[in-house]
Amino acid sequence: MIEVVELTKVFGAGTSKPTTVLDEIDFTVDSGEIFAVVGPSGAGKSTLARCLNLLERPTSGKVVVNGEDLTALGTSGLRDARRRIGTVFQSSSLLARRTAAENVALPLEYLGATKASTRARVADLLDLVGLADKANLYPHQLSGGQRQRVGIARALALKPSVLLSDEATSGLDPAATDTFLNLLTEVRDELGLAVVFITHEMDTIVRVADTVGRLDHGRIVEHGRLDDLVLDPDSVLGRALRPRGPAARAGADQAAIDVVYNSTSVPADWLTRLGGRLGIPISVLGANVQTVDGIAFGDLTVSVPADHVSAFVDAAAELELSARTTQTPGAATDPADDHDATTNDILTTKEEVAV
Ligand SMILES: Nc1ncnc2c1ncn2[C@@H]1O[C@H](COP(=O)(O)OP(=O)(O)OP(=O)(O)O)[C@@H](O)[C@H]1O
């Protein structure tokens, strides 16, 4: 378990131009939980990662792992305590002149483990990440996804209780990303790790996260369980986690309505039920319906006859669907624009938007 309490990082503290990059960040990740942190470039994600594994000393606040405040430790205590947090970086920065097995062995060698125990542990770890047959290959002989799996094996070498993944799927192709994410959930479950998963890829969050925090200008501005967020029509983060392509425009005399599942009890045949009950045609203009861990969530735009909007909204509410028109009568805005704007707001800095 890792608890982060009022974590603050100010670069240039004491100078005339201090920059507060992390501003009183609070969160807790339990053992067996994956907490995803998402945010735009410059939000402070890398600084957060470096402060969590104490490569960077926070200006104030605490990083507490299994009850021990790592920020209170002196240099030698810290070296020891760092072992409790294993880190996988963006490009796992393996040593080019060492084989996969020798890379995984590195932390054990620094620790002074015996050759026999190191050999056994490395074999177990490479087996765990599905690379037992690649032990003697060098990094350039491995694919990007395989290198990241070696990175996980190395991060787990010292039996940490926290795994920190810092943009570890960036640059991986979809198949390698899949394998990496599956491995992450496997090690969470098998080893009971608390995982902090830092990323800018919203689709990876939906696949693995139990909880999600949105970092913006050094603050966690939104935080919640993934299943609550994706079912919340008012959550900015929830909308970004339900991305979809452009919706078609509503036809003449039709109104476009955004529909979001806001409970896990929405019947699968809700569209047929509403059409039958109201006796109107309902057209789907755009949709994203997914099931994650048995929870179906969806975000659609449908069109209904313009004089049936309020009847549709009321009937939808009875099926635990949130339905809202997204355009003023007669206007022809594209509801999909709102979705794109939401995702961009989360992943793009205000400065970049303004450019
Ligand atoms: N050593 C430093 N001294 C001063 N400012 C810094 C330092 N390191 C980072 N910053 C500033 O802190 C802010 C956050 O940077 P950080 O790299 O943590 O963001 P990020 O969210 O990881 O961005 P990206 O996704 O682009 O990597 C930036 O404005 C950056 O310029």
UniProtKB/TrEMBL annotation:
Lineage: Bacteria, Bacillati, Actinomycetota, Actinomycetes, Mycobacteriales
UniProt name for this protein: Methionine ABC transporter ATP-binding protein
InterPro entries documented for this protein: AAA+_ATPase, ABC_transporter-like_ATP-bd, ABC_transporter-like_CS, ACT-like_dom_sf, MetN_ABC_transporter-like, P-loop_NTPase
SMART domains: AAA
Residue span, ABC transporter domain: 2-242
Protein source organism: Gordonia paraffinivorans NBRC 108238
Gene: metN
PROSITE patterns xref list: ABC_TRANSPORTER_1 (PS00211), ABC_TRANSPORTER_2 (PS50893)
Pfam families, A to Z: ABC_tran (PF00005)
Keywords per UniProt: Amino-acid transport, ATP-binding, Cell membrane, Membrane, Nucleotide-binding, Translocase, Transport
Molecular function as annotated in GO: ATP binding
